[in-house]
């Protein structure tokens, strides 16, 4: 097999795609035979070209798992010996790293079985070698072995920590320092012992030094590992940071302020500040770091986004999120500096400063609500002035801030409606669609908690909103519908003169079927339910049937948000109609059950990145026999489906409440309801 396999390995490395494909198929067939292990081992040791040796190691890593138990003790010993030789004598770094990966896989089975007692002593010896390559590969192995046999390192943690600290301070090799940084990250991720983790506090100065050196040499990706380490330390409940928090904050502020660095690197630094505000806010107070952080964050708010920059990584957006987190966790320490910044910057000739002045006030309104309520007049003076600014970005930020105030500064904001509503009315006719959209949002949030105070403004408001529903782009129509819904809720019976026109317009939205229009259809369905509640059963029941038909037909479209809003519509109609809603139960109850039974759609993000994928070996080295553990990077849940389920459960409760005996004809529904009700509070 060895000779034919060598030819196939060479053929696989050819540029001809057909030749590569043929070689890949034959290699996969040969790999099912346990004899592939000695053949690959031979090529790892003796092949003339580094690429062939590397490919042999990559394949060996994938195939040895399935064949290890079938190998004789003598041959297992040869495998381990050959791998050690490759690590210590190989001149090619990619081959050396590929061999180290094989060691990790073999160690997963051999070390727990007591078949490789000399591996750890070898690694300690190797890590103190005079040769840079040996020290580096030993640290690489410590990193990878932590994921597979980390528990066997626990008796040696003190020695390992001393070794890692020494390697972080290696004066002759940047590669060794980087490998040590990665190893520290692996060990921190592995250990859950607070007493062990605390010992890593002494590593922080050295970690910062390595990170700075990496940034200076352009190795941003490596420097980011330092932020990942700090993340682990910050989230730990153990008191890990001490006065080192000052150094971490200083470094993070340096990085996020540097416009020469990659956006992703700056974003990582901002995340560290955010985590510190969330988990270690007392440390920020103790070491008087709040003001220095806010000074940098407010400065970042004034930074213009680069044309090719991802919006989610833009420093001004990330800085706003940090200020928001700080306001929630340190409101008394955040409000005054931010208010002072806004008071000064609102008059600046630079539009970015004027925009930042109102953005900052908007983002702190949730955390600093009590303090802001005491300063409503000067704050509104700044924001309403910005709403009349000559620049649309400033006006848009002001609209956003008003929306935040309307959401978080209730009920005090409503008492200023005589000043606020006329300004919003003017903003609804702004030349910028973005300003209009944010103004609809502000209007919706403000009107939601207004009552009869809205009546003097009702006619001009509805005139503008009805016109917008007919003539605006789709995204504006959606936010406009939310505003109309809030106005209808506030006006109640006074909304009746406008209801017929609104409902007539909604008919055209509730039959849309194109994917890009379904969000508007969802909003329209929601709005009809709100209008129905406002005008009452007497006026709504005679015209209800076509709206119910349109709403039910929406379940034939695969769009969770539409189903969620439709359940809300059914809830409102059931409450409005009372026992007369029983006629619709055969249609709507099964739909609610169907939503409740949906899969939440949890998703697992697997990290399978390694050298072989980067070098094009991923296809030939993957098969169903490989049992290597991939690393789970992230677990997510489709919250849209959970929102749909919550809406469906609420609808079921209202069906039962308002149709009573008619709903009792659904025995399975009653059982289902009794099971779901204890969970509904959590989903809400």
What do these coordinates show?
The chain has 684 residues and is mainly α. The protein has a domain at 470-605 and 632-674: Leucine-rich Repeat Variant (Alpha Horseshoe). Helix content is 70%, strand content 2%. It contains 36 helices and two strands. It has helices at residues 2-12, 17-30, 36-46, 50-67, 73-89, 93-110, 119-127, 132-149, 157-168, 174-190, 194-198, 204-216, 220-235, 244-257, 263-279, 281-286, 290-301, 315-329, 331-345, 351-363, 369-373, 376-386, 392-408, 417-427, 433-447, 458-471, 474-491, 496-509, 518-535, 537-540, 545-553, 560-577, 585-596, 611-614, 639-659, 667-683; strands at residues 603-607, 631-636. It has a two-stranded antiparallel ribbon. The longest helix has 21 residues, at 639-659. The two termini are 63 Å apart.
Question: Which terms would index this structure?
Answer:
single chain; 684 residues; mainly alpha; Leucine-rich Repeat Variant; globular; small GTPase binding; Importin-4; TPR_IPO4/5; transport; protein transport
Major sheet, described briefly? Answer: 2 strands, antiparallel
Helical content stands at over 70%
Please tell me the CATH architecture of the domain at 470-605 and 632-674 by its name. Alpha Horseshoe
The percent range for strand residues is: under 5%
By DSSP (H or I, 4+ residues per run), the number of helices equals: 36
Which structural class is indicated by helix and strand composition? mainly alpha
Integer-rounded radius of gyration: 32 Å
CATH class of the domain at 470-605 and 632-674: Mainly Alpha
* N- and C-termini, Cα separation: 63 Å
DSSP strand tally = 2
**Spatial order of the strands in the main sheet?**
1-2
Coarse morphology: globular
Average pLDDT rating? 85
What is the CATH T-level topology of the domain at 470-605 and 632-674? Leucine-rich Repeat Variant
Ranges where pLDDT stays below 50 over 5 or more residues in a row are 602-609, 621-637, 679-684
């Amino acid at each position: 097999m060895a000779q034919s396999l060598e030819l196939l390995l060479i053929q696989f490395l050819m540029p001809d795609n057909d030749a590569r494909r043929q070689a890949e198929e034959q290699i996969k067939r040969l790999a099912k035979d346990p004899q592939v292990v000695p053949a690959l081992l031979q090529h790892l040791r003796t092949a003339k070209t580094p690429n062939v040796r590397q490919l042999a190691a990559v394949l060996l890593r994938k195939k040895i798992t399935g064949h290890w138990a079938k190998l004789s003790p003598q041959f297992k010993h040869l495998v381990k010996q050959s791998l050690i030789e490759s690590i210590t004598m190989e001149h090619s770094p990619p081959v050396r790293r590929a061999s180290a990966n094989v060691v990790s896989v073999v160690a997963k089975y051999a070390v727990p079985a007591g078949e490789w007692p000399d591996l750890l002593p070898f690694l300690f010896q190797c890590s103190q070698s005079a040769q840079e390559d040996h020290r580096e590969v030993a640290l690489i192995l410590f990193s990878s072995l932590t994921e597979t046999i980390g528990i066997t390192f626990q008796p040696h943690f003190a020695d390992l920590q001393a070794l890692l600290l020494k390697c972080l301070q290696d004066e002759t090799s940047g590669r060794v320092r980087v490998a040590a940084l990665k190893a520290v990250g692996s060990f921190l991720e592995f250990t859950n012992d607070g007493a062990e983790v605390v010992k890593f506090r002494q590593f922080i100065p050295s970690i910062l030094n390595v990170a700075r050196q990496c940034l200076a040499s352009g190795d941003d990706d490596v420097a980011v590992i330092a932020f990942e380490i700090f993340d682990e330390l910050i989230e730990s409940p153990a008191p890990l940071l001490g006065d080192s928090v000052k150094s971490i904050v200083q470094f993070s502020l340096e990085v996020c302020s540097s416009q020469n660095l990659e956006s992703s690197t700056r974003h990582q630094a901002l995340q560290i500040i955010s985590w510190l505000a969330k988990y270690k806010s007392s440390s920020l107070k103790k070491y008087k770091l709040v003001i220095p952080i806010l000074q940098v964050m407010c400065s970042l708010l004034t930074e213009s986004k680069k044309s090719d920059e991802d919006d989610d990584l833009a420093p001004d957006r990330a800085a706003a999120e940090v200020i928001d987190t700080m306001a929630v966790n340190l409101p008394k320490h955040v409000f005054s500096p931010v208010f002072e910044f806004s008071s000064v910057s609102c008059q600046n000739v630079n539009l970015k400063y004027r925009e930042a002045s109102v953005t900052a006030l908007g983002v702190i309104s949730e955390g600093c609500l009590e303090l802001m309520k005491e300063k409503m007049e000067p704050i509104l003076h700044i924001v309403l002035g910005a709403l009349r600014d000559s620049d649309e970005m400033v006006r848009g930020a002001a609209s956003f801030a008003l929306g935040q105030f309307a959401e978080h500064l209730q009920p005090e904001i409503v008492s200023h409606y005589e000043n606020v509503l006329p300004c919003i009315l003017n903003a609804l006719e702004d030349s910028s669609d973005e300003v209009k959209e944010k103004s609809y949002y502000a209007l919706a949030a403000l009107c939601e908690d207004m009552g009869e105070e809205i009546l003097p403004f009702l006619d001009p408001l509805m005139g503008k909103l009805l016109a917008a529903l007919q003539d605006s782009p789709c995204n504006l129509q959606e936010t406009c519908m939310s505003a109309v819904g809030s106005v209808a809720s506030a006006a109640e019976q006074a909304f009746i003169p406008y209801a017929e026109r609104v409902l007539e317009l909604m008919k055209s939205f509730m039959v849309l079927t194109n994917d890009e229009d379904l969000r508007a259809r969802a909003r329209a369905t929601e709005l009809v339910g709100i209008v129905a509640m406002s005008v009452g059963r007497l006026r709504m029941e005679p015209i209800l049937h076509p709206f119910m038909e349109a709403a039910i037909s929406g379940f034939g479209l695969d769009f969770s948000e539409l189903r969620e809003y439709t359940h809300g519509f059914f809830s409102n109609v059931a409450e409005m109609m009372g026992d007369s809603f029983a006629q619709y139960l055969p249609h709507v109850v099964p739909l609610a059950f169907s939503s409740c039974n949906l899969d939440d759609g949890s998703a697992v993000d697997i990290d399978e990145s390694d050298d072989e994928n980067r070098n094009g070996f991923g296809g030939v080295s993957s098969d169903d026999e490989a049992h290597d553990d991939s690393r789970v990077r992230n677990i997510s849940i489709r919250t849209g489906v959970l929102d749909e389920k919550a809406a469906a459960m609420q609808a079921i409760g209202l069906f039962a409440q308002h149709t009573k005996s008619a709903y009792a004809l659904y025995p399975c529904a009653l059982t289902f309801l009794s099971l779901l009700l204890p969970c509904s509070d959590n989903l809400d």
